[in-house]
Amino acid sequence: MTGNLGEISAWLQKTDNAWLSPDGEGKWGWEEVPYWLKGYANIGYILEDQKMIDEAMVWIEGTLNSQREDGNFGPKHFDGDNQDFWANMIMLYCLQSYYEYSQDPRVLELMTKYFKYELTVPDENFLEGYWQKLRGGDNLHSVFWLYNRTGDEFLLDLAEKIHRNTANWTGRNLPLEDIKNYYEVRDGGEVPDWYRDQVDWHNVNHAQAFREPAQYYLLSKNEQDLKASYENFEIIRNHFGQVPGGMFGADEDARPGYADPRQGVETCGMVEQMNSDEHMLRITGDPFGEIMQRKLPIIPIQLQSCRILRHCITSPLPIWLCWMRKIIFQELETKGHF
Fold first, then answer.
1. How many angstroms separate the most distant Cα atoms in the chain?
2. How many Å apart are CA 280 and CA 291, to the nearest integer?
3. What's the gap between Cα 137 and its chain centre?
4. Fewest CB atoms within 10 A around its CB: which of 50, 85, 137, 231?
5. What's the pLDDT tens digit per position in 90-104?
6. What is the rounded distance in angstroms from the CA atom of residue 161 to the CA atom of residue 136?
7. What is the model's pTM?
8. Distance CA 204, CA 265 (A)
9. Which of 207, 326, 211, 307 is nearest to 267 (CA)?
10. pLDDT (tens digit, 9 = 90+) per residue, 63-121?
11. What are the C-alpha distances in Å from 177 to residues 172, 181, 196, 277, 335?
C-alpha cells in the first residue's frame, strides 16, 4: 500500500500540491504528505529501490526549494491566526532521514534557517492551537538532531522556547479546561479525579507526546522531567491498558468508563507509540523501550472498519476468540475530533 499510494491518493497528486509549491500555496498542505513520505522514503533507502527513491526525491526537492527568505518553508497553513507548525515537524523527520542517507548539506542549511525563523516568532504566536501545542516534542527532537551536527548555540535557546510553549506533559491535577480532547463519562457522572493527571487523552497525541518531558531532560538534566514521561506512560495504561502488547485502548480519545476490550486504538496511535519507544530508548538506554517497540505491533489485529471508512480501529484479539477461531465484527460508533 505504501509503495502504490501515490497512484490513488488525492493528497499525493502533484498538480497544485502545496508541498511542491515554491511559495507554499496550493492544496493538500497539511500532515498527509509528510506522514506518507516519512515511511515511503525510508523503505526506498533501505531496499535501495531506485524507483521509490526517485519518487521520494520529487517531494524532498519540492520541500528544499520551498524555503522562503525569512527561513520558513513548506505550505502556508494556519491554525486560526497563527502558523500551524505541526506538518513541518513531520517533514523535518523526512529531511533528517534523507540527510542520513545522502549527506546532502542543503538539509542542514534549510533546518538552520528554519529554526532561526522559529526563534523570531513571538511566544504568543508559537505552537498555538491544538495539535501543534501537544506535539511540540517532535519539533524539539529535530532541534537536538541539528544541534548534534552543527553545535549552534542558538538551537538550545530555541529548545527552551519550544518546551515552554508545548502543552504541559508534566502536569498533574490539571483544571479540566486545560484538557482539550473530546471526552465523556460512560453512563454519565462526574469526570474522575485521575482524568486531570494528563493534559490530553487523544490516543495519537498521547502516544507521541508523552515523551516530551524526557526529550527536554536532555537539556534540563532534571530527573523529574524524565520521571514525568515514565509516569505518563503508566497513567494512561493504569486506566485504559487492556490492549495486549502494551498498548492502551482509545477509539480516538480515551474516555472514562470506556475501558473494556471493545475499545481499540488507531493504527497511527500504535505507530507513534513505537516511534516514542525508540526515542525513549535513545534517551535513556533503558531496554524497556526496545521491548515495548518489539511487542506492540505483534499482538493486535485489525478488527473492524467503519462502513463509511471514517475510522480504522485496531482492537485486541482475546485468547478465547482465537480458541473459538472467531472474530467478532461489531459496528462501533466512535466519537472525537473527526
1. 63
2. 11
3. 9
4. 50
5. 999 999 999 999 999
6. 10
7. 0.90
8. 9
9. 207
10. 999 999 999 999 999 999 999 999 999 999 999 999 999 999 999 999 999 999 999 99
11. 13, 10, 10, 29, 19
